[in-house]
Specification:
single chain, Nuclear Transport Factor 2, Chain: A, four-stranded antiparallel β-sheet, alpha+beta, 4 strands
């Protein structure tokens, strides 16, 4: 008599469950990969776009920051927008005193608007400034990058 292996017992499935063939989830990984690539591409385009905006519209940003500070009489912030050469010839105290005198005689800055927004470096930005007395005049600010930051390097009046 030949010895044979014991029979393979068949276990009964757990009640309420059926064994199904496991489906492939490859499509999930493909979708996740596509989403990840789109996120990387979007982030890259955003970074490039922000760099473009900062480099090409920094002139208007520093000018807006400067005159917004003058308008609220925050002369320390306005002075911080000035370039090194201007600061070398004009102390913060002298700048503040001059701006306060101008506010006292001509009225505070009520509003300002851009006449042009050049994209050069250096660039001359022209603005119309209106005081609370109704006096309106044009200001020319020369802006350029100093150490990668836009600064006002010359102005004809406050």
């Amino acid at each position: 008599m030949e010895a044979s292996a014991p029979p393979n017992p068949q276990y009964a499935p757990f009640p309420g469950s059926t064994q199904q063939r496991r489906s492939s989830r490859r499509w999930v990984w493909m979708v996740l990969g596509i989403v990840a690539l789109l996120c990387i591409l979007g982030g890259t385009l955003l970074a490039l776009g922000v760099g473009f905006v900062v480099n090409n519209y920094g002139q208007s940003h520093v000018t807006d920051m400067y005159y917004s500070a003058i308008k609220t009489q925050d002369y320390a912030t306005a002075y911080a927008s000035l370039g090194a050469n201007v600061k070398a010839g004009l102390s913060q105290e002298a700048f503040t005193h001059t701006a306060q005198q101008h506010d006292a005689t001509a009225g505070r800055v009520n509003r300002f608007g851009f006449l042009n927004v050049p994209t050069d470096d250096p660039a001359t930005v022209a603005l119309t400034v209106t005081r609370t007395t109704g006096a309106s005049y044009t200001v020319n600010l020369v802006v350029r990058q100093e150490g990668g930051v836009w600064k006002i390097t010359a102005f004809d009046r406050i």
